[in-house]
Design goal:
heterodimer; A: 251 residues; two-stranded antiparallel sheet; 3% strand; B: 174 residues; mainly alpha; 78% helix; globular
């Protein structure tokens, strides 16, 4: 395949792909799903990814929530509250029968749904500046590191990987991260690509190329693993074996 | 024409909410196409892209009253969700294809250069294919890409370079 004008080819291909898959706007569905989800969330985390400095508390908030609450109440037959006045309880003006009136939608804080699944202690112990915006404490700038890092015990940890266990619907469920984090990794068998080991290694090493600091930040980091991190740039991590558990390198 | 109770209810919600904050409606229509274009270039399927864009707008809507820069929020939400979509899909795909030693899709099954390009692009790490798509397809500057991806600006250039190199290598094998 001719790859001379690869960037242009990719752009053209993506344009054709876009043209062949029209996705129509559906504002109503957005509003319905937002209503189903409770319409408002907790104050947005101040991390850059989630909202950052654009988060404001202003007059829009009151007016918006009040109006939405009024919309919902109107929809279920409850007396309408003046927009901006908030979801005060009002008599059911729609019927005179003994009908139970659904409670107005609460505008009290509901659990925040972030744009991406992030654990509360995300990056709590590491992650170079956590520049994917997750909450946490950025690690200090550790400066350049040599590899293998002399501070890592000269042991070989060999992880057992059962393909059935490592299929992750979402990376959160994987438990092998820590095991890999403590691994002193040397050589990679030809037939084993670290990028093929989802959850365990993929965050730091995908097919020979690290995805960068944002992936490092995706996991609560084992302090031992920070030795492999240089300002968010991954250093090589290679699996020795996929068979047993823990054995000293020198016997 | 008979209108169902559900329709009436929906119309009331839409009418009241939209009237209360027509800004969001305008924002939605002004940004939908752009985000679809972005998501289609980063997600692994059109369905996933549609879901990503929809969910991102729901997030924006839910936080609408507090967002000073909804467009920036939206852009990042779309990219974050595309990244997650890729992770989940690629983890399954890679495991199936390689750890379980399932054969790769033979080249002769690929019917077009576009498919080959798309497949090769999907094999790149997310950040690499994201920077390629954002730079060459969507025309973002490196500074804009860094902002969208939440990464240092200095990472963007190397990612583009490595991504294109990997892509070229992958295509030459085919």
């Amino acid at each position: 395949m001719n790859t001379e004008n690869l960037a242009d080819d990719v752009a053209d291909m993506l344009a054709r792909r876009h043209d062949s898959a029209p996705i129509v706007p559906d504002l109503g569905r957005v509003m319905r799903d937002a209503a189903a989800a409770g319409l408002r969330s907790e104050p947005v985390d101040a991390s850059p990814l989630v909202a950052g400095p654009e988060v404001v508390a202003g007059p829009r908030r009151t007016a918006f929530l009040g109006a939405v609450a009024a919309a919902l109440m109107a929809a279920v037959g409850v007396g309408v509250v003046a927009a901006g006045a908030g979801p005060e309880e009002t008599p059911n003006q729609a019927t005179t029968d003994d009908v139970s009136v659904p409670a107005p939608p609460s505008t009290e804080a509901a659990p925040l749904e972030l744009p991406e699944p992030i654990s509360p202690d995300h990056c709590a112990s590491g992650g170079a500046a956590c520049d994917d915006g997750a909450p946490g404490t950025p690690i200090e700038d550790v400066g350049p590191r040599s590899y293998p890092d002399p501070t890592i015990p000269d042991e070989t940890f060999v992880i057992e990987i059962d393909p059935d266990d490592t299929v992750c619907s979402g990376f959160d469920a994987c438990a092998s991260t820590t095991s890999v984090a403590t691994t002193q990794l040397l050589d990679l068998p030809d037939d084993l690509d670290p990028g093929n080991l989802p959850c365990a290694i993929a965050p730091w090493h995908r097919g020979g190329t690290c995805d960068g600091s944002t992936d490092i930040c995706d996991y609560p980091m084992d302090p031992q693993f920070e030795h492999y991190v240089n300002r968010g740039v991954c250093e090589p991590i290679v699996v020795i074996s996929t068979t047993t558990t823990h054995q000293p390198a020198d016997g | 024409m008979r209108t169902s109770t559900g329709d009436v209810r929906e119309q009331r919600i839409l009418a009241a909410a939209t009237t209360a904050d027509g800004d969001f409606s305008a924002f939605y229509h002004a940004n939908h196409a752009k985000q679809v274009k972005r998501a289609l270039s980063l997600c692994r399927s059109a369905d996933a892209a549609a879901d990503v864009v929809h969910e991102a707008f729901v997030d924006v809507y839910r936080n609408w009253d507090r967002l000073e820069n909804p467009e920036a929020y939206l852009g990042r939400a779309v990219i974050s969700r595309c990244r997650d979509d890729g992770r989940q899909a690629s983890a399954r795909d890679r495991l199936r294809l390689r750890l379980l030693a399932e054969p790769r899709r033979p080249v002769d099954e690929l019917t077009s250069r576009d498919e080959q390009l798309w497949q090769a692009l999907q094999e790149l790490p997310f950040n690499h294919r994201a920077v390629i798509a954002l730079r060459f397809y969507l025309g973002h500057s490196e500074a804009e890409i860094a902002e969208l991806l939440g990464c240092p600006q200095g990472s963007v250039g190397p990612w583009i370079k490595r991504g294109l190199a990997s892509l070229r290598t992958s295509l030459e094998r085919r």
